[in-house]
Write a structure and sequence with these properties.
Layout lengths: L1 H7 L18 E2 L16 E2 L1 E3 L1 H4 L22 H12 L11 H9 L7 E2 L1 H14 L2 H11 L11 H12 L3 E2 L5 H4 L2 E6 L2 H9 L1 H8 L4 E5 L4 E6 L1 H16 L2 E6 L1 H10 L5 H8 L2 E4 L7 E6 L3 H14 L5 E6 L8 E5 L14 E5 L15 H8 L15 E13 L11 E4 L5 H5 L20 E10 L7 H4 L3 E7 L5 E19 L7 E11 L15 H9 L15 E4 L8 E18 L2 E9 L1 H4 L1 E8 L7 H19 L1
Parallel strand pairs: 4-5, 12-19
Antiparallel strand pairs: 1-2, 3-7, 6-8, 7-8, 9-11, 10-11, 13-14, 15-16, 15-20, 15-24, 17-18, 17-22, 18-19, 19-20, 21-22, 22-23, 23-24
Helix pairs in contact: 4-6, 5-7, 6-7, 13-14
Length: about 650
C-alpha cells in the first residue's frame, strides 16, 4: 500500500483561482456651478450608488393614507447582495471612466425614494437633490431612456421636468399624515484614506447592514469620499461605527525581499492586487530604507496568515523540479484552441487565457498515429536534478508514472518567450470511460457499483517559509502530509505519512490528435517518519509534527469546522534545528485503483475548496522494473494505447 500512496502523489495537480468581481461599477456626473444658473461640463468620476431599494435589502411597512397603501419591498435577495458586494470590491478599477446611458439612469433612479408617500418637506428635498446633481441635458436624457411615455415638452425648464419625473414617473405623493421630522434625510460626507476605503469595502457585510436600515451610500473612489444619506439617528450610528471599525484595525509588518527575489527567478510578478482582494488585507509600503518592507492592515489577525499563504501559493515555483515540454507548433495540421479556465483551475490560473494545441477533426479525417520518442523522454527523466538537497535521506524511493490531461500554454504563439505552460488534469467525460476498467485487485471485469470501492485521502502541501529574509525556500524541498480518511469522513491521524520530495523530473508531451496530452513524471521521495506506534514514543523526535496533529481539526463530515495550523516545524535529516514549513493547500481525494494491461491506473476526484477548485486526475503508475530504459518503453506504449482508448 505504501507503494500506491507514494505513487499517487506524483502528479502535482494544477492549483485553482477565485473569480474576480464582475465589472460594471455605476458612474455619475457631479456638477460645478460657475455663475447664475450656468453649469460647467461635468467631470467624469467613478461612482457607486447603493440603496435599499436597488439591492432589495430593505423591507418595512409603508405609511398609509386615505387613498393609497404603499406596497412592501421585496424580501432579502442573496443574489442582489452578491452583486452589490462585487460592485463594492470593484471600486478601485480605474478603467471605468465612461458614463453610459444605463449608468446615468441608475444614478438618477438612486434618488427615487423607497416610500412613495412623503411629507412636503421630503418632496422638496428630493427635487432639490435632483436639480443640484444633474444638468438639464442629463434630465432630458433620463426621461428619453427611462420614462419615454412621460409628457415633457421641450419648453419646460429643469424644475418642471423634475416635478414630472417625481410625480408622474415615480408616482410620488405628498401626504399630510407623515411627520416631516421622521421623513427628512440628511447627507454627510466622509473623506477616507485608501487603506480605510479598502478595509470598509472588503468587508461588505458592514455596508449591507447599513443598507437594511434604508441608508443610501455613494462612493467616489477617485476622491476617496464616502457620502451617506440617512436620517440623523442613523448618521450618528454610522459615524461611531466607522470610528470603532478603523480604531480596531490590526497591523503587521512583513518583509517580502526573499519572496520578490523568488518571483524574479520565475519571471513573474507578485499578484498583490489579487491577494489583497481574496484575503481582505491591505498592503502598504513602509517609508524608510527597507524597500521590501510592507505593513499589512486588516480587521482580523487571521487574515495576515491567509495573505501570506496566498503569496506562497501564487509563487507556484519548486526549485527541486525540472520540466521539459514537447510541443509541435510547426505542423500545418494543428492549431491553438482557447480553453476556458473554469473551477477545475486553481485561483492563480483563472484570470489568464490558456490555449491547447489540437488537430481539427472533420467527418472524413483520419487520426494520425501517436508517436513519442521514448528514449528522449527517458533521458530527460533521468537527467541531473535541478538542485541537490543539502542532507542525505535514508532509503529514498523512485517512482515513475504518466498523467493524462491537457497541456496548456498562456500564449497561442509557439515562439513567445514569455509563454507559460501548465498541465490541467481535467478531461471531459473521463468518468464514464475509466469506470469501464476493472478494479486493480479484482479478478472480475466489471466494477460492482453497489459497493463503495473508493479509498479516501487528505493531502496537505507544505513549503519552507521564505518570509522575513529566510533562505529556506531554496534550500529545503517541499513536503506533503498524507492521511487516510475513514468511513465517517474523519482523518485517521495515525496513518500519517510525511513525504519529502527531493527531485521531480517532468516531461510534458503534446498530443494534438488525442483528447489528452501526456505528462511523464519521475519522482524521488522518502517518508520522514516511522509507522504509528501505540506507545508515547511515536513522533518523539518530531515534536513540531506532534503539535501540528494535536491542534489540527481535519474532519470532512461537517460536524466541526476544518482547521489546519498555519505552520509546522519539521526536523530534517542531519539538521540541528527544525525547519519551519508553511501550510499552503489541502485537498480531499476520492480514489479508485483500476487495472489496465495489468498495471495500476488511479482515478481520483479531488476537492480543493473555492481556491483550489474541483477536478479529476488519472494516473498510470509504472512498475519497479520500468525505471530502466527497456522497461520504460513498455510504459510509454501502454500510455499511448490508453490515450487512444479514451478518445474512442
Amino acid at each position: 500500500m505504501k507503494m500506491i500512496r507514494t505513487s499517487v502523489r506524483l502528479i502535482h495537480t494544477s492549483r485553482r483561482l477565485l473569480q474576480s468581481a464582475p465589472e460594471g461599477t455605476s458612474t455619475a456626473l457631479p456638477q460645478k456651478v460657475l455663475g447664475k444658473g450656468k453649469k460647467k461640463a461635468p467631470e467624469k468620476q467613478n461612482l457607486v450608488i447603493l440603496n435599499a431599494k436597488q439591492s432589495k435589502l430593505y423591507k418595512r411597512k409603508g405609511h398609509r393614507s386615505q387613498e393609497n397603501t404603499v406596497k412592501k419591498l421585496d424580501d432579502l435577495d442573496l443574489s442582489q447582495i452578491q452583486e452589490t458586494t462585487s460592485k463594492l470590491l470593484n471600486i478601485f478599477d480605474k478603467s471605468q471612466v465612461f458614463v453610459t446611458d444605463q449608468e446615468l439612469c441608475d444614478t438618477v433612479n438612486a434618488h427615487k425614494p423607497v416610500n412613495l408617500q412623503m411629507s412636503k418637506q421630503r418632496y422638496i428635498q428630493i427635487t432639490n437633490e435632483l436639480s443640484s446633481a444633474f444638468t438639464l441635458k442629463q434630465i432630458r436624457r433620463y426621461i428619453f431612456k427611462e420614462l419615454s411615455s412621460l409628457y415633457a415638452p421641450k419648453k419646460w425648464n429643469k424644475a418642471q421636468l423634475i416635478d414630472a419625473i417625481v410625480q408622474k414617473g415615480w408616482n410620488c405623493k405628498i401626504s399630510k399624515v407623515i411627520n416631516p421630522s421622521d421623513d427628512l434625510i440628511q447627507t454627510r460626507s466622509f473623506f477616507l484614506t485608501k487603506k480605510k476605503m479598502f478595509l470598509l469595502m472588503s468587508h461588505s457585510s458592514i455596508v449591507q447592514n447599513w443598507m437594511r436600515a434604508n441608508v443610501r451610500i455613494v462612493l467616489f473612489p477617485t476622491s476617496l469620499q464616502l457620502v451617506i444619506s440617512a436620517n440623523e439617528a442613523h448618521l450618528q450610528y454610522i459615524e461611531l461605527a466607522l470610528d470603532s471599525l478603523f480604531n480596531n484595525a490590526k497591523e503587521q509588518d512583513v518583509d517580502l525581499e526573499s519572496v520578490e527575489q523568488l518571483f524574479a527567478i520565475t519571471g513573474e510578478t507578485l499578484p498583490l492586487e489579487d491577494i489583497q482582494r481574496l484575503s481582505s488585507v491591505y498592503f502598504e509600503k513602509k517609508n524608510g530604507d527597507e524597500p521590501h518592507l510592507y505593513t499589512m492592515s486588516s480587521l482580523g489577525d487571521r487574515k495576515f496568515t491567509e495573505a501570506k499563504r496566498l503569496i506562497l501559493w501564487s509563487l507556484d515555483y519548486n526549485p527541486f523540479m525540472k520540466a521539459h515540454s514537447h510541443i509541435d507548433t510547426i505542423s500545418p495540421n494543428v492549431k491553438y484552441f482557447k480553453t476556458f479556465a473554469d473551477q477545475s483551475f486553481p485561483w492563480i490560473h483563472r484570470k489568464k487565457n490558456w490555449y491547447r494545441l489540437k488537430e481539427p477533426k472533420t467527418i472524413n479525417s483520419k487520426t494520425d498515429e501517436i508517436k513519442i520518442d521514448s528514449n528522449e523522454i527517458y533521458k530527460e527523466l533521468n537527467s541531473e536534478p535541478s538542485k541537490q538537497v543539502s542532507f542525505k535521506l535514508e532509503d529514498p524511493q523512485d517512482v515513475v508514472a504518466v498523467a493524462f490531461g491537457q497541456l496548456l500554454q498562456s500564449s497561442n504563439k509557439g515562439d513567445d518567450p514569455k509563454n507559460k505552460t501548465i498541465f490541467n488534469t481535467e478531461i471531459p467525460f473521463i468518468h464514464e470511460k475509466v469506470l469501464k476498467l476493472p478494479l486493480y485487485d479484482s479478478e472480475g471485469e466489471q466494477i460492482d457499483t453497489t459497493v463503495d470501492n473508493h479509498t479516501y485521502y487528505a493531502q496537505i502541501k507544505l513549503l519552507p517559509s521564505p518570509f522575513n529574509k529566510s533562505n529556506s525556500y531554496l534550500e529545503y524541498p517541499p513536503i506533503e502530509f498524507w492521511f487516510d480518511i475513514d468511513e465517517r469522513e474523519s482523518v485517521k491521524k495515525d496513518t500519517l505519512q510525511v513525504l519529502c520530495i527531493t527531485n521531480d523530473q517532468i516531461s510534458n508531451v503534446s498530443v494534438p490528435q488525442s483528447i489528452t496530452d501526456l505528462k511523464f513524471v519521475k519522482s524521488q521521495m522518502t517518508n520522514l517518519i516511522d509507522g504509528y506506534r501505540t506507545d508515547d514514543n511515536w513522533l518523539k523526535d518530531q515534536p513540531g509534527i506532534r503539535e501540528f496533529l494535536m491542534n489540527a481539526k481535519l474532519n470532512f463530515n461537517g460536524q466541526e469546522k476544518i482547521f489546519v495550523p498555519d505552520y509546522v516545524d519539521i526536523k530534517l535529516p542531519g539538521s540541528k534545528e527544525p525547519v519551519r514549513y508553511d501550510y499552503i493547500t489541502m485537498c480531499h481525494r476520492k480514489q479508485l485503483d483500476l487495472r489496465y494491461h495489468g498495471r495500476l491506473v488511479t482515478y481520483a476526484v479531488i476537492e480543493g475548496g473555492s481556491l483550489g477548485g474541483s477536478t479529476s486526475e488519472v494516473i498510470m503508475v509504472g512498475n519497479a522494473d520500468e525505471l530502466n530504459e527497456e522497461g520504460f518503453n513498455s510504459l510509454v506504449s501502454d500510455a499511448i494505447s490508453f490515450a487512444k482508448d479514451l478518445g474512442e
